[in-house]
ABC transporter permease (Haloarcula salinisoli), 304 residues
Amino acid sequence: MTPAPEEFEVSGAETAERASGSDTLTDVWFSLERWLVKTTRNPFVTFSSLVQPVIFFVLMAEVVGAIASGILTETVGDIHYVSYLTPAITIQSALAAAAVSGIGLVDDIETGMFDKLLASPMHRSAMFLGKILSEVIRIAVQTVIILLLGFGLLTLKTGAGVGEFVRTGLLGIVGIIAVAVLFGGVFMAFSNVVALITRDREATIMIANLLTFPLLFVSSAFVPLAALPNWIQTLAVVNPITYGVDAIRALLLGRGVASVVELSSLPGLWGTVAPAVAVLLGFNIVLGGVAVSLLNRASRAAVK
């Protein structure tokens, strides 16, 4: 693991001049285009972050679904396990995509592209906004694919229509994508923090894989919290996956299904969605603040 220097120098960073006609939006577009091209040229990362949740979806629906119906009836109500599982797989897909966000940053650092961009006239905020937007697009597309898969599985098993799968309609689907992106922001920030501290590709991948599975099982993702041991219920309170899954599950089912925090003063699903979104925003602000601080420190370059 390569130790992170306190500050590194980029030759020409202060002497570079902004190109005529270039503005922040144009720079964001160029940065977004660059990251999207990088993603299409390395489809393995996108494929692996999507195929794992899909395999999990099918296996969990067949294996756990056969024994979980009784638990669901006692704790959540009369819903099919595929409907219960879809929010968990949506969050797992967003987690898999976001947790490797830092790899691209490490690649740029290792190849020297990061230094070249710092020395270029591009707005520094645009460098990172373009990267974030490319990952938002990726999470949104993966979320739609998981929802289509969930609908297909539920239809095969029960013959249910779209209205029985997403009970809040088109606005509910938009809300589900928004929550998945908000949740992804937490782990995008975390992954970039790890990347900037370690500056090592293998370490970033290892920590991402280390987190994915334990956090999923220490939450309300696959089985209602009420059916799990007390120590898992305690850990689930500080696990952002619990809040992401609860919010999407409420938007999918059209009613409150909070596992840890519910505002009884708000009607229906909003009693679950509002506190979950607030908690996820809090995680984004804290981890995003740390990531921005580290990025600013890395960007503080002096001319040799």
